[in-house]
Amino acid sequence: MQNIDINSLTPAMKQYFGFKQQYSEAILLFRMGDFYETFYDDAKICAQVLGISLTSRNKNSDNPVPLAGLPYHALDSYLPRLIKAGYKVAVCEQVEDPATAKGVVKRDVVRLITPGTLTEDNLLGGAAENYLAAICFDSQGKGAKGSDKVGIAWVDLSTGQFYAQVTNIRYLIDELVRISPSECLITEDKEDLPSDFGQQLEDVIGTVVSTRPGWSFDKKQGYQELSRIFQAGSLEGFGFAEPDSSIAAAGVIVEYLKETQKIALDHISSLRKINRDHFLQLDQTTLRSLEIERTIRDGSTSGSLLGSLNHALTAMGSRKLRHWICYPLNNLEEIQRRQGAVAELVGFDNTRDQLRAILKNVTDIERISTRISTGRTVPRDLLGLAQALRQLPDIRQQLKDCCSELLVELSGQCDDFDSLAGMIENSISPDAGLSIRDGNIICPGYNEQVDHLRGVCRDGQSWLANYQKKLIEETGLPNLKVGYNKVFGYYVELSRIYSEKVPAYFVRKQTLKNAERYITDELKQYETEALTAEQRCKELEERLFQEIRREVASHTLRLQQVAETVAEIDVLSTFAYLARSRNYCRPEVHEGHDLEIKEGRHPVLDVQLGGKFVPNDVALGGRFGDVGIITGPNMSGKSTYIRQTALLVLLAHTGSYIPARSGQVGLTDRIFTRVGASDELSRGQSTFMVEMVETANIINNATDRSIVILDEVGRGTSTYDGLSLAWAITEHISSTIKCRTLFATHYHEITELSELYDNVKNYNVAVREWKDDVVFLHKILKGRTDKSYGIHVARLAGLPKEIISRSNEILQELESNFSKEAHRPELAGKLGKKDSVGQMALFNNHPPDPLLEKLKQVDLDNLTPLQAINLLHEIKTDLENR
Question: How far apart are CA 355 and CA 407, in angstroms?
């Protein structure tokens, strides 16, 4: 922003600069009449992002002021674009009536909108959480220097869900990827943070980073603040006996919300302690490689595991499904509770179908109740809430015959909200608009004064006609008229010839050429009422609406609880729907190590291929975790098979059925993947370095209860370096870690490990060769293969025929000219001569040597000593003459 002489500015612009100084990191929307105005750099940003006109003030001066404005009533349509572009927005409103203001109108910033503090539907995706996170390292402030502990807290302001956990610093990024916050709060004291930590958050997590003063990350201060918020003597009831770094992070979130939102946070009523040991762990690499939330190709939900499974019928259910998939259980009893509920809904088709039909009519109770509690609601929110609450008795009725433990529990939690729904239906008009400023909010019959004012607005002409008739009867003056104009208001008009007959209660108001106009007390009273009726009606309706809103807000905690219940019912019914419609089976999850799946199918590709997907078995486990080495052609399905296995294990731990004929899944603590090629050039890491870092993470953290998926480890370096690493890594997993592992590779030599270790098994992907073509059968068989068919795949990809032909020639030479002495293929022999087209000869294809031909013809069995000596003399002479 250019240098400004503040003293030369108008009072309004001085006011603007005062607020801009307070909110320098945000775009300031400054309310002026019917517009929000932006100036200077903010105006340039808004013009570019929103596509609105950029104009200027003081155009004729040397320093014109860039200006861009947007209508106040269109704010909701513009805000999402600014937030999605990564900007914060401070909304500065007029807080007094300009008509009665003395001097400059009083203004104040009523809200700072940031990516992590959204509550409105038009700013949010209904099926996704919107988390604001805070991170506090134990080494911050008074913590133990060098501690490897870090506290994380995260809240979804739109739902009130609030979580906190302490974890090891090496798991921090993994946890943040799983949380996927829209905004992260970290200390502004860089010495308390790992190097380039803020940049790493933006690059890896894709989150907006906001800094807070270092002193605000105080454990005791956070503990006291949270105790006040929850009106509790301590946080022990929430699982936090003592202040820790997660409590410090949660305290920072609360202070940030109070500062930016300027509202009560009554809907945030609890803090849930998360223990990572209660869930199957998925690190950032696994979440990406298995495409659990988004595809690798374009980052879309469509084509991901979540996209394939999300047949939830409510927004609450969609968010709960995402949570269950990203946080699979590892507690056998809890898994079986969910499975029992799904099994019952699978078995009762009518119950499940009726239940899902009812759920279609349930709106987002969770987010509506938050908007009601925070005062950001509109009339239709209340109507939507009433509609949802009316479905609860029907949901309970559908579940009344269920006997699985979880469904019985959830049915009992479907509280009766009939009285609250009735109050809303009796008070809020079904024709209410989106804004309380539009009026027509309150139902007819709910409030007498509203009905009267509406009558005044609606029946003005008929009242005037009746009043005129009444005056004619009282005065006996048939030419009397009652009228209205915008300048003089309401009046009674009489011709001058009747001036002597005018009643005493007529008060002269205006003299015309041939007539006089009068006013009466009754007409004056009506005028006062009629001219302000519409505005007074809207104001009264708004007051009544706020009273109704406060009454509904008093039920926020109960509404949140029933929203959680409905969300779980929705996900369980979704699991049952998928199991029934896609022919899934109930896996037996057990305490052992065995993993055995019959005719398993990939949960995404099975749907996309429309029943053409080839199912496969998997058998890993036993006392010593099996390592399955899978060889076979490119494009044959090796990578699909190993990913499929990991996804089926994950699904089993959510309580879902799985796409298979049968399955037994031993409890798993973590799923690790090393799949695909990627680099992080911005961090100085090559593809191979990333590959080795991810592999090291697996080796250092996997246990005998982990599932490990490896795809082409070692391919990023030279053949023998890569083969040596792949061999040693596989050997270490099979002999030391002993966890269930699938390794897809083109290093056929590794299959020899099965001769050294009993828990190493070889598998291959079946193919059939027909003439010059290869048919991929996509079927996993026992045993090894020694062919990869890479040239065939290259032909399918569209490489020119001459390259394919030449590749086959080279392949034959490589396979036939393998030098045992040098232990490598002899690619060129004595290079240096060029062929007839000027290309360096790749292979040593010289004409036959006469001397060699002579030696070939010697009959060694009948050669005398003298003949041998003579032959050697001839050879020596011949060589000397060359």
Answer: 12
